[in-house]
Amino acid sequence: MIENEPMIGPATYFRPEHRAALDPRTRALVDRREAVLSPGYRLFYDHPIEFVRGSGTKLYTRDGDEYLDVYNNVPSVGHSHPRVTAAIAEQAALLNTHTRYLHEGLIDYAELLLDSFTHGLDTLTLVCTGSEANDLALRVAKQATGHRGIVVTENAYHGVTTEIAAISPSLGGTDSLAPWVRTVRPPVDDGAVMVADARTAIAELRAAGHGVAALIVDTAFASDGFLAPSPGTRSALAEVQRLVHAAGGVLIADEVQPGFGRLGQRSGEPGLWGYRHHDLTPDLVTIGKPMANGLPVAALVARRELMSAFGERVRYFNTFAGTPVSVAAARATWQVLHDENLPEHAATIGAELLARLSELVQQHDRLRAARGQGLYLAVDVVDRETGAPDAQAAVAIVSALRERRILISASGRDNAALKLRPPLPFSRADVDRFATELDAALRDLD
Amino acid sequence: MIENEPMIGPATYFRPEHRAALDPRTRALVDRREAVLSPGYRLFYDHPIEFVRGSGTKLYTRDGDEYLDVYNNVPSVGHSHPRVTAAIAEQAALLNTHTRYLHEGLIDYAELLLDSFTHGLDTLTLVCTGSEANDLALRVAKQATGHRGIVVTENAYHGVTTEIAAISPSLGGTDSLAPWVRTVRPPVDDGAVMVADARTAIAELRAAGHGVAALIVDTAFASDGFLAPSPGTRSALAEVQRLVHAAGGVLIADEVQPGFGRLGQRSGEPGLWGYRHHDLTPDLVTIGKPMANGLPVAALVARRELMSAFGERVRYFNTFAGTPVSVAAARATWQVLHDENLPEHAATIGAELLARLSELVQQHDRLRAARGQGLYLAVDVVDRETGAPDAQAAVAIVSALRERRILISASGRDNAALKLRPPLPFSRADVDRFATELDAALRDLD
């Protein structure tokens, strides 16, 4: 649900004009795939890769070639983690029904999960995808506030349902937004621009009669440039949160990407949720992607009073959500996350990876502004002469790394940032391997 | 996603006032559940059931009590079918990534699946839920036609995203519909009312400037009263389809419930899709629920030109859709469906079940109008004096059958129809057991 690469310009996707250059098996698969799947489907790389096996931070082709995964944030506790696999297999063999019969697994998991939330976020609703979670969050916000207006960051991405695509400017620009949506710049530097934009957005929504139902923010600000928390971002977000509440709206923290330890442990915190890094107190939190290490599981966590206001007027039942198999996968993922101390590890190894990236920025004038938090990092690729974002070079680096069996992507508004978000059990050896290959790819490019 | 029980009136849900009557374990589970899940969650029955194991058409409690499942249409090839379980376990242990790498399983499955469609329905887009499938179908229809208006049946249910709830009058009545939605009566009798309503709906949508983007129909007309195909429904639907096409709109067949053989094989047909029973030629088809026997898998099948029109302007990527584990489950389900001749079986055993229901209608003046198709059947419960729908009696029958270890539900606009939609491997012994217990429950009620 969360790929923000632009429609046009250089991209790391397969293009039909590369068909002739493919090996026969890949060409045959690409042709067969093209014949049956919607034209909207894309394949990564000019030479797409067929993976058949995964383990930890590695993916393997049919021929046994090993790739280091510095891209995939869904298999967050590692590809095909044996404990998650075993939990899925065991539960699938026993039972997989829905939430209208009692099943203790669901209750156990809900208790575990909610225990990690603060500030009265005490009520769980399971869904299947991050898009469904955000769609439901907006329905709840609108019902509970009686307002319709939504405030988002200027390059936000929150999902693909009709409603959520209409609040996601990264998909189609501000032209594609619904009339009741206003954008604010993200809290860069001291965050003053975000506060000023929020005042304007709120005033406009009120003047238009929409009122303010919610501000929704990805707490990693991933599609807005990967902003790490700082005193500046914290004070700006605190003020924006105050303005939204004063206007009768609620704050939705979209933790679909940053959640479950991706941003690493903050000192004195369990380290699972991005909003804690920013000292926010959201009213609704959406989670998903890494929640069950790849099975379609997502959720909305909310203050109970908001869900009561919604539940009194609206019926909501999601057939596939909260089923015993989904919950078994989510619970095993949760247990691995904690037993293997992955949020703490993400902070430590993420800092090392960021340090290596920063060294490379010193050594290569094509790289600039290594940044991020935990194992969610980015670095800009720029033109060496002008310092302008260089999407062409970013794509060339991604492709060169693919040849070196390293998976990353180019992302950001200009498609000129390298995005790093590996499975959390990323090791020191993985950091070395990645940094060495990136260094070599950059030298080759010079 | 598809429970149409009304918000008010008698229902077969647990109510807090029954808490004291629960056994201690059930009470403890209910209390714990209540403390963590959204108030919108419901439990079936005044005395909720905790299942821990399922097999074929049976569900089992912790104490080993066996229940006959005449309700659950998602585990359509049977609860925890060993071939589906094995496929999930095997693939989960190997790999579970996304559709931007090549994976032959996805291609194999897409080829198998599309081969069962007709009339140029040649392009697959995988999603995770029926709601997502219908939401995407509407986005595609709107983009491809340039229109906005949607026509639905008067008690339609199509899902729970913001957009789809706004075209689902069964959730909140016509007041809850978006301004660009119009309803038509279903094709009862000779279907003349549907044709007349469609003419009005189309004229209104055009006059309001919305135009006609799509007519969407559940091809079992489940929430509109379970209409089996007949010469009357066929000719009415053919005319309505013609009117929609003439207005520049498309036809969306919602096969989320009727699809994958639920309606039984029609002579000379593979029998997988409800639209074939009605001789319709839809432009878009949505499928889901039984597709992977319980894993969150759904899809949109479409004519390629529509998806091209959409794909040129809109980016769509669904993280959890089409992953190797989801596809492995879907493919194993498909294989079992065919290897065990379940669509053919659904026709045969469904006819037997319908015949037994019709006998019971003869014997019990509380029952009326046994109807349906394949293993998707309904019978009305009426007041013996007045013949009016009797929701109270329907709920009493559902509860009495629960005590007799038979699972069914009350449904329909008045909540006064018994709804039967068991897993497809429903046996002759299962038919006997169900009919015997329903007969006894009715006698007890007299």
Order of strands, main sheet of chain A, comes to 4-10-9-8-7-5-6
Oligomer classification? homodimer
Strand content of chain A: 15-25%
Give the largest interface pair and sizes.
A-B, 98 and 98 residues
- Low-confidence residue ranges of chain A: 1-9
The level of helicity of chain A is 25-40%
Secondary structure tally, helices of chain A:
14
Structural class of chain A: alpha/beta
**DSSP E strands of chain A, number:** 15
Question: Quick check: average pLDDT of chain A?
Answer: 94
Q: What coarse outline of chain A follows from CA principal-axis ratios?
A: globular
SSE string of chain A: HEEEHHEHEHHEHEHEHEEHHHEEHEEEH
Please give a quick description of this structure.
Two copies of one chain form a homodimer. Chain A is an alpha/beta fold. Helix content of chain A is 39%, strand content 16%.
Can you characterise this structure?
- The structure is a homodimer of 446-residue chains.
- The first copy, chain A, is α/β, with parallel strands linked by helices and 446 residues long.
- Helix content of chain A is 39%, strand content 16%.
- The first copy, chain A, has 14 helices and 15 strands.
- Chain A has helices at residues 24-36, 82-94, 104-114, 130-145, 162-165, 169-172, 192-207, 231-246, 274-277, 304-313, 324-339, 342-363, 391-403, 428-445, and strands at 51-55, 58-61, 66-69, 121-127, 149-153, 181-184, 212-218, 250-254, 284-287, 298-303, 367-373, 376-381, 406-407, 409-411, 417-420.
- In chain A, the strands form three sheets. The first copy, chain A, has a seven-stranded mixed β-sheet with strand order 4-10-9-8-7-5-6, with helices on both faces.
- In chain A, helix 12 (342-363) runs parallel beside helix 14 (428-445).
- The longest helix of chain A has 22 residues, at 342-363.
- Chain A is globular, with a radius of gyration of 22 Å.
- Chain A starts with 23 loop residues before the first helix and ends with a helix.
- Residues 1-9 of chain A have low confidence and may be disordered.
- Chains A and B meet through helix 1, strand 1, helix 2, helix 3 and strand 4 of A and helix 1, strand 1, helix 2, helix 3 and strand 4 of B.
